[in-house]
Amino acid sequence: MIREFHLACVVLLVACPAIASQPVIPVPAHVETRDGVLSIDSSFAVSIKGTCDHRLRVAVDRLTDRIQRETGIPFHGSGDRPPTLVVSCTDTGGTIPTPGDDESYTLDVSAGGALLQAPSSIGAVRGLETFWQLMQPGTSGVGVPALHIADSPRFPWRGLLIDVARHWIPPDVIKRNLDAMSTVKLNVLHFHLSEDQGFRVECKRFPKLHQLGSDGHYFTQDEIREIIRYAAERGIRVIPEFDMPGHTTSWFVGYPELASAPGPYAIERTWGVFDPTMDPTREETYEFLDGFIGEMARLFPDPYFHIGGDEVNGKQWDSSATIAAFKKQHGMSTNRDLQAYFNKRLEMILSRYGKRMIGWDEIFHPDLPTTIVIQSWRGPASLAEIARSGYRGILSNGYYLDHMMPASYHYAIDPRGGEAAALDSIQAQRILGGEACMWAEFVTAENVDSRIWPRAAAVAERLWSPASVRDSSDMYRRLDILSPRLEWVGVRERPNRTLMLERLTGYRDISPLQRMQEVLEPVKFYVRSHTGKYTSWTPLNRLVDATLPESREARRFGEAVDSLLADRGTVSVRRRIRERLIRWSAVDVQPLVAQSALLHEIDSLAVVFNGLAKTGLEALTAMEQKTVVTPEQRAGWLRILGAADRPYAELLITIAGPVRRLAEAALLR
Ligand code: ACM
Asked: What integer is the mean pLDDT of 145-158?
């Protein structure tokens, strides 16, 4: 890994010699570089000054352990020398992170030592992560560059939603993702715990929730407490979401009386928006929810409790005579009013248990108090209206990781951008931040890391760093360095992908498949959902499931082609393009395809992929040697480019765009 790290730095130095910023994500609010480097050697030691709570002590141990593993240097203490890093913190310390926590810190590094100062242990935890990211191998060993950093977040709410309901994600996977979240200073784990397809927490008062609604895949309360403890040590709040009154089929398997239409109900196995909805007109519904929320409020210490509230299709409500009568009796003309009534009742229950309500856009209603927080999946216009109306909100629209969009796409979206840019400063302050969302229709415990990381780091930077930090190529430069390093933190992207590819090939040599896969990407947005062929039983063991959402190789190839076509192409850029095209045109996956049923579907993909690479090579040669493109050649190129315009086996061949540009340039010459 050190070698890869080093190579990334070398590539970066060649590509952008003028860039001075450190490879840290998120970019700190204020950095002054100094001369010199602090060496990390076997005398590495950290000491804590001031009042030190448990969180800080374990964070220091964690950092020391990680640096030791990553560098391969056994540490044996600083002896008579001063410690490498002094952490000074005056926190008397709560044990659970809370919304207004001070996360600021300053870090001063010189050749003689480093000093990290923070008013809270959470700020110190943030600073320790910065210190780790700054650590780089150099010509004279591993070191941290001399500098001064004064850092604090732009937004207080920087979250990651993990949907553990549609596919089960067990505790160890959650924990390693908490470690990665801490690395990029995300501070809220939004746990999407119930859905039509599963109810994932042990409930002692109403045990049929998890017993009948989970296929046996649920967190025990001890496991939840352990996750909360683990998160708290990393300065991460855990907010439970129990989505209601819709998205509740799994609840009704054990408790059909909660629904607006008679059962029986079974756990939903397909994806979409479904009819089963709680009955908001029965007092028994609220008695149940009071008991349920009371128990969950004790389990989850965060002051916020997410009630979902999204995508109520109203079909069960519309077809019930008693619900129609209730609406009439209460002067409600719409289902939106009925849902607001339900939410008001929920809000009163939550208040009684000391909780503040958070929910999706659909809970926004003037009947609800402005103490609620609204999470916008609908977008900037909705969020701006929320803030103008006196409510606080967070943004998730544009941060859906399941859409398989590139990091640059998420990075460009600012919670205070779009319509929110017109808000006055008081209104703008009501936008508390945002959350990346890992919805799990097409995600399993085995590939979830590869869907979250590294792209969530781009969202983390958007939410932490000053708004002026917007250069997406610099973000990619730093992301390419951080991404392999996340494996040291615990993310299992590369090892799991390798295992998945080995399974696909029947444990044969996966390298041809890897060479093709490096420029493939899964289809975007809801293309897979819209096929209608998936259920929660469908194995997610295909090439598409083992392929990263964003191809780094294709991005770099595209940049090289653009630079060539803009006449900036150096000899090495030309050579790189040619080498890549030769490499891809020579890939032969057919022997693997012939031997594995799981790979049969990529037969045509491989043919088009090879043809595309050959087209690129011919176009490059025609450009360089200024040869005439024959009509037959042209027709062949157009045929293959046309064929490459669509997905195969739900995979996109991402070099199609750059190869098209090369071909067009060769034809226009
Ligand atoms: C959502 O995407 N329905 C929150």
From this structure: 98
